[in-house]
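Give me structure tokens for this 219-residue protein.
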Amino acid sequence: MRVLTVLVAAALLGAAGCGSEDPPAPDVAVRDDAASAHAAHTAATESGAPDPVEGTSLYVLPGTWTDQAGHSRTLSDLRGRPQVVVMAYTHCAYACPALVARMKQIEAAFEGRPASARPGFVLVSIDPERDTPGRLTEFAESMRLDAEDWVLLNGPDDQVRALSVLLGVAYRATGTGDFAHSNVLTVLDAAGAIQHRTEGLSGGVDAAVDALERLLPQP
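Here you go.
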């Protein structure tokens, strides 16, 4: 297995809170053996987020995470079924609930299918200090997220930032309890490689469903 070394410098400057405006990209270099992907430095828009690293499984990232039930997990535990992944935080009042709502729209498209023909859904907190397993459980219950298909993850800040680089998500704390962040929904294949990515809070559900249909076995 190839070894990923992720170097993250959090140089996120001047953006609004709770996803109303996305922050500029951090200074980032992602190295996978001899291959490198570099973040662009642009305006405070989603196009300014670091470029996602496609073709490489995200599951090679090391580290242990904690899910909403308090169980320890590695990213490789998600292997075996396509996943819809969002990075968000539970105290967000606008953008993050909208992202979860889009995930639920995708989930509804596969309702009634056996588990082997449904995707999984992963929410990774960018606010690990406050998004404890207990808080993630409360959020999952309030949003009616089925534990059979949904995993909510809390992890150390360095792991969260490393994953955000590979997903092309930029974020920073605003100092008011909110975060400025990219609004990105990513579809991974069963091996953890990026197959589809949608930015913004409008549209993209049909395209994500189409991508998943190509990845999932037909029921």
